Every structure is written in C-alpha cells, then in structure tokens.
Amino acid sequence: MVSARIWSVINISLVLVAFVLFLNFLETDVPTVGAALFQLDDNDAICISTYGDQESLLNIDFCCPELQQQLVKGEKVSTNFLLDGEQFAVQKRYFTGENTIDYFINMKGYRYCKNNGFLV
Amino acid sequence: MEKRGKKSKFTSKSKKVLSKLKKKSKGKVGLYLFVFLLTINVVLAGLTVAKSRGLLIPGQPDPVVIDNVVDLDDLTLEQKIAQMVVVLGVEYYSNPLKRMQLGGIHLHAMKGIEQFHKVVGKFQEGMEIPFFVTVDLEGCVNPFSSFMEFQLASEVESIGDSFQKGKSEGKFLSELGATINFAPVVDLDDQIWNCRSFKGDKEKVSELANAYVLGLQDEGIIATAKHYPGKTLVIKDPHKFLAAAEITEDDLYPYDFLIEKDSIKAIMISHLITYGKVNSEGKPSDASQRITDELIAKYDGLIVTDEINMLGMRNFYGSLDEMYLEVFKAGPDIVLNFNSDPNEIYRMILLIKEAVKDGDISEKRIDASVKKILEAKGFIVKD
Question: Any residues with CB less than 8 A from the CB of B311 and at least 6 apart, and which?
C-alpha cells in the first residue's frame, strides 16, 4: 500500500509537470540553458561566408536563415579568420557542396540563431 | 475499574480504526488525485505534441476547380491569403502545410535527387491547387550542389552562354518539379561573394539576365529578377540590422530593361532601406507600399518579398505582428516566410485575415494578387 506521503510527492510532481506542459502548450517563453549561455557569452555573434578565396563578415541576422537551408549543418571546426585586420574564431561550419558558399559561425552566433527558432 | 478499563480499551481500539480509516481515505484521495492529474498530463502532453506537429491547424475546404477554372468567390479569405505565402518545404510538416493550402514551398538543400522528388511528390499529392515549388539556384548558391553543379552567373560572358545556362537549369528544375527559380541576381555588383551576379556594365548585365530569363522560362520555370531596387550585394555592414543605400538610375536599369522586354515573370524586392531614385521612406523596401505601388504601375508580373523571417527584418519592427501587417499592407503578391513552425505561419494568416476584415488591408488587393498567382499556376481565374 502506497502511503499518503508518497501520494503527495507523486501528485505535486504531476502538478509541476502539468504546469510546464501547460506553459509549453501556450508557447510561453521560459528561460532555457541555451538562452542563459547566450547571455553569459560576451563575444559578438560572428558569421563569415566564404566562396573561393572570398571571405566576408556577414550580418548574423542575415546569416541564420541561410544556415538552415544548408545540407551539412553545424560541422565542428576550429578555425580563425583574419578579416580587416581582426581575428575571428569560429566553431561551426555550414555548407552544401564543394562549389558553393560556406558559412562559419561561432557559438554565440549558433545560440543566437537557435534561440530565434532557426533549425541550425 | 473493569468497566473503565474496557472503555479505554474500546476507545484506543476505535482510535486505531479511525486513524486506519483516515489513512485509507487519504490514500484513496491521493490515488484519485493521481489518476486525475495523470489524465490532465496525458491530455496536455497529447495537445502539445499535436500542436508542435501542426495537427491543431484546421483544414480548409477543397477548392472548386472545374475545367481548370477557379472562381475567386469560391475561395475563403484564409485560402486566398495562404496562396500568397511561400514557406520552407520541411517534409516533417507537410500535412499542416498542405491543410493550410499555402501558395508554395521553398526547397532547401537535400542529400540526393531522389529525396527532392520524394519531398516535392509528397507536397503536391492530392493538391487541387498545386504548390509553387521555389528554389534559389544561382550557381554559387545551389541547394543541389552535393550532386549537381551549375555555371556561376559571374562566369557567364556571352548572351548565348547565358541562354544555355537558363535552359539547362530550367530543364533540371522542371524535371524536379520546381516552378520558380529566385534568379537571376541583377544587382550590378556583388562585393560580398563575387559570384552571384553577372559581370559587366548595366547594359551587359541586363542583356545576360534577359537571355538567362528566356532560357529558364522556355523550360517552364518562372524566373525572378532580384533584389529590387538594387545594391543588395554591395552593402555589407555586419553591425546593422538593415542597411540603407542610395539607388541610382543605373541600379534600376536591369529591371526597366527586363520589364520593357516583357520577359521577366517575377521580381523580388529586398529588405534594403533605400533613398535616391527609389525611396522606401525609412522602411525595408519590401514593406514599403510606395515602392510596391511604383513597381505595380510599370510591371504586371509577380512581386515577391525577400525572406521576411530574416532577423534583420524581424528586429526592425517592434513585433512579428507589426512586421506581418506592414509587409502585407505594402501589397506584394508573394510573401516568403521561412519560419519553420507551421503554427506561426497559420497565426500570420489569421492576423492578415483580421486586418482584411477590419479594413486595414483591402480584399481587392488580396484578390488581385491571388489572381496573378493562380494564373501563374496555369489556372483560368474568374473574379
């Protein structure tokens, strides 16, 4: 026989789960680990596109929708780009084929796109 | 004494029974509460999963198509607005996107040609009004590049080459089931990638673009000149949400050339804030009614927005609702929204429906766009 105390613990847990499910159903924004990490990361969100020997710093806002259309998403890399005399470290690569534009982003950029609902 | 002893024995016994009963009833209440909460959790979990898969989006009535004729009066307002929307063709969401009867799907990169055929087939199956199937095939932007390569626009030198490029890309896209290519880029310069636009002065760019358009459309694919009114691939300020640029006569030359030749079937307007020859009045160009009106005055083909889900565009406005309203009010025929959540797409449709009902957006304007869209899909439209 389950004791009344155990029932209380189980039921309180169920109430909490129901509350989370309800918030999720209403699409209420709840703080996530990703959002917290994004806030804690004080780097700039970086997106760099490359084609042949052309390298360009892109606006991350433009970059996110391009990333979600690539075939290979988020391949881990550890590369530095030197653009306009400034070093940029990137950690993820997005591409489709050999002869098309590649995109590189850092973790801040990745979290920025992810937190904004892009399938990256 | 004996009596008292018996009485106290009886009392302690009854107390024990009572507490047992209490415990039992507490246990029972706990059990009933558990069943109740479990049921609520199961229902909520079911609803959440159903919503995340877009299963709560209601279906539209089947459109009446008789002898290839569509009567606009037979379409609901929701159906008409949905026809103006092109979304990312995510196979997982094919059912809700089909139920909404959207105007089109945009193909993202996939592994092989079989997968493209499968996805296009899945979306088009059973659709009385088929989806536009759109792609961005420009050369160095190529969703098929894992198995198929095409010449870059920047490598094309002669009109003949350009026509052949259009023909071969058109043939490939046609076999794939695509209907619109968001190309050619007729920006006069590409300083970001150096590969997306044709090389040369404004006359050469315009002639090469026209030849490409003719080749592509000869294979039944609608070509889209972009990004009106120009300078999109020149401005590269990574720190600005939306950049601004001065538009000159030269920037407009390719568009005027293609319009005069009566070749181009669609024009895409960019998010750039413009001044000079074309003035977006401080707004993104594709949300500027002034720009759309000026374009409609000289061009009767399809007017398409750039992808409005770009964060620069989203961040420019206070809310998504404000952005949706501004874009639709501007009066384009086709709105690209690559938000991957079908619920958000449906919410946008309902928002625009309310704006039409409130008189903020003219239904006549919606009808004019839907007529153009359905005619481009090969239907005869009664209005």
Answer: A60, A61, A62, A64, A65, A116, B241
User: CB of B143 within 8 Å of any CB in chain A?
Assistant: yes
Give B153→chain A minimum CA distance, Å: 12
Q: Tell whether ipTM is more than 0.85.
A: no
Residues B13, B153, single domain; the answer is: no
Task: Check which CATH number belongs to the domain holding B76 and give it.
Answer: 3.20.20.300
Handedness of CA B241, B242, B244, B245 (dihedral sign): positive
With beta carbons under 8 A apart, name residues in chain A contacting B136. 69
Instruction: Say yes or no: B48 contacts chain A, CB-CB below 8 A.
Output: yes
Is residue A95 included in any domain, yes or no?
yes
The boundaries of the domain holding residue B22 are 1-52
Place of tokens 């870059």: B152
On whether residue A120 sits in a domain, the answer given is no
Which residue of chain A is at minimal alpha-carbon distance from B148? A97
Q: What are the pLDDT digits (tens) for A70-84?
A: 999 999 999 999 988
Total domains in chain B come to 2
Taking only the tens place, the pLDDT of each residue in B139-149 is 789 999 999 99
